[in-house]
Amino acid sequence: MGVLDAHLVPAFDGVAYGLLLFVVAAGLSLAFGTAGVLNLAHGWLYAIGAYAGAALSDGSWAGLAAGLAAGTAIACAAGALLAFATAPLARRGHLDQALLTFGLALIGGNVLIEVFGADEQPVQVPDALNTSVSLLGHRYPAYRLGFIVAAVLLAAAGSWVLRGTRAGAAVRAAADDPDMLAAGGRNPRTVHAAVLTVSGALAGAAGVLGAPIIGPGPGTGDTVLMLSLIVVVLGGLDSLWKTLLAAVAVGQVQTLGVSLVPDLAPYLLFAAMALVLVVRSRSAVAEPPPAPVPAATGRARKAVRERFRGPGGLPRGLRRLTRRVPPAQRATGLLALAAAPAVLPWLLDDYSLSLAGHALALGLLAASVTVLTGWAGLPTLGQTAPFAVGAYATALLADAGWTVGPVQVAVAATAAVLFALVVGPAVIRARGTTVLMITLAVGELTHTAVGGLTSVTGGTDGLVGFPATEVWWGAGAPEDEATVYWYTLAVAACALAVTLIVLRSPAGMLLTGSRTAEARMRASGHPVDRYLMAAHVGAGALAGVAGSLLVTGRQYVSPADVGFEIAAFALLAAVIGGTVSVVGAVFGAGLIVATRDWLSGIWPGYGPALLGVLFVVTVYLLPRGLPGLFAARSPGAPARKATS
């Protein structure tokens, strides 16, 4: 009884925390399940409400009511803006939606910081609620008890609206059968826009009411978004009550779990998220593929090769990007691209040259995303996991006295390959948005481990002070920034050359076939899972090399270098490159680094907003990446494929 008594208050805190997440996640679930929008700006909508509530709170009921009205209205308008912004992307899938809404969240978050400042905002609640009440012999904040009651009433009201009203029937029809809804005289797009607007209002209201629990600050939106995604994944999209139970479970892990198993609690949520997604993806593909016919296997494989190989051995997707470009002009362009990085040491100062080296490291990470997203059809938000493995392996090797660059690169690549082999089976069987979520969970688990294993990784402070990398045996520490850059360029060029050779070989053709006609490939006897695993392992090795180069150039690594934001940047760089060009991905990474570090130096404080603009411009104006600007589009050549 003593143990239960000791954990009673944390358990009630978990209920309040979970119900707050439910109010937020209910809107995210509606947006995703009904409107089909993967809204990565949902945490920003919560932050709008939280900041508005904090700004108008003065300890009175009128201040609370004014904050609730203002926060809900502003977030509602922002939700309508998101509905308008994502409407043109309805046929382009969740990858573009995720990039667009993430970019808008960066812009919106920068605006909130400019208006309210970068410090945590204090929140005042009415005096009647700013007290404590007796609860089973314990004192407990009255405000949290009131919030629990309000959230339960909201869950009941929401369930009634969805199940017992005509508006709810229209929402369910828009999710299940939009064609039938249109036949009944209702426009599904209007319903989707209304759902996103209501979703924004729910997030804003939750922000106002939840500000005393999860207060407004620079990281509030990201925290709420991640926890809400976990709730939606665990609870599913078919029932508000399942979402409610999942939210309460997450709340208990965040509060009671910390007091019971503090060492394991940070990992439980993302581990549970990954497990649920893997189980669902396996059940979705539980039905075995058609059995191959042995007598026709040779002819079928030949047909697949002919179907996916174009002139010169290039897959048809790449042929579209090079059509109507004369060979001489193409060769000249490639030589110019290769020569441009080589002349930078004579053109740039040390700081700009260090940025160029950092862009090469991020470019290799983006190239690994290109291999998975563009070639294997596995869109990923988790390549920062093998990237982190390579980076920390290099830093730990250097700290132990192993400073020779090629040795560090080899060990980093090997460690990343082993990591990719472990997590690969959980990734390669999923498709579309499920892959995004699984890889996101893997990336966040790795990020959590990096921040938690303080004795090994230095925790949030990171690793620093280890010896510099020797570019070759006996070369000694680099004397200037140019030497480090030359080393980074040489390793990156070798890694990209190997990647291009593999992708332009029959192995790349098999990946193209697995992505575009998986059922045919399986029916003709091809081990598609092995091909995808090989791509996953190869991409992991490339990301590990990228992590090693990051540490070589910066002589420092921390969890901030391997977090979700870097994963989003790498995915954006791959999209800028057209999702099939590893060289284009490196160029996209250079554009991102220039925007984040160089332009933000010209306009201090606006770095996130500038990056957000880059996200938005890329999604709207570059549906086929930069290569699409220089290649004539043939009839039937698609824009970026949907991920769902």
From TrEMBL:
<feature type="transmembrane region" description="Helical">
    <location>
        <begin position="226"/>
        <end position="248"/>
    </location>
</feature>
<feature type="transmembrane region" description="Helical">
    <location>
        <begin position="355"/>
        <end position="378"/>
    </location>
</feature>
<keyword id="KW-0812">Transmembrane</keyword>
<feature type="transmembrane region" description="Helical">
    <location>
        <begin position="260"/>
        <end position="279"/>
    </location>
</feature>
<feature type="transmembrane region" description="Helical">
    <location>
        <begin position="328"/>
        <end position="348"/>
    </location>
</feature>
<dbReference type="Pfam" id="PF02653">
    <property type="entry name" value="BPD_transp_2"/>
</dbReference>
<keyword id="KW-1133">Transmembrane helix</keyword>
<dbReference type="InterPro" id="IPR001851">
    <property type="entry name" value="ABC_transp_permease"/>
</dbReference>
<keyword id="KW-0472">Membrane</keyword>
<protein>
    <submittedName>
        <fullName>ABC transporter permease</fullName>
    </submittedName>
</protein>
<feature type="transmembrane region" description="Helical">
    <location>
        <begin position="566"/>
        <end position="593"/>
    </location>
</feature>
<feature type="transmembrane region" description="Helical">
    <location>
        <begin position="15"/>
        <end position="37"/>
    </location>
</feature>
<feature type="transmembrane region" description="Helical">
    <location>
        <begin position="142"/>
        <end position="162"/>
    </location>
</feature>
<feature type="transmembrane region" description="Helical">
    <location>
        <begin position="99"/>
        <end position="118"/>
    </location>
</feature>
<dbReference type="InterPro" id="IPR043428">
    <property type="entry name" value="LivM-like"/>
</dbReference>
<feature type="transmembrane region" description="Helical">
    <location>
        <begin position="484"/>
        <end position="503"/>
    </location>
</feature>
<feature type="transmembrane region" description="Helical">
    <location>
        <begin position="68"/>
        <end position="87"/>
    </location>
</feature>
<feature type="transmembrane region" description="Helical">
    <location>
        <begin position="605"/>
        <end position="623"/>
    </location>
</feature>
<keyword id="KW-1003">Cell membrane</keyword>
<feature type="transmembrane region" description="Helical">
    <location>
        <begin position="193"/>
        <end position="214"/>
    </location>
</feature>
<feature type="transmembrane region" description="Helical">
    <location>
        <begin position="531"/>
        <end position="551"/>
    </location>
</feature>
<feature type="transmembrane region" description="Helical">
    <location>
        <begin position="409"/>
        <end position="428"/>
    </location>
</feature>
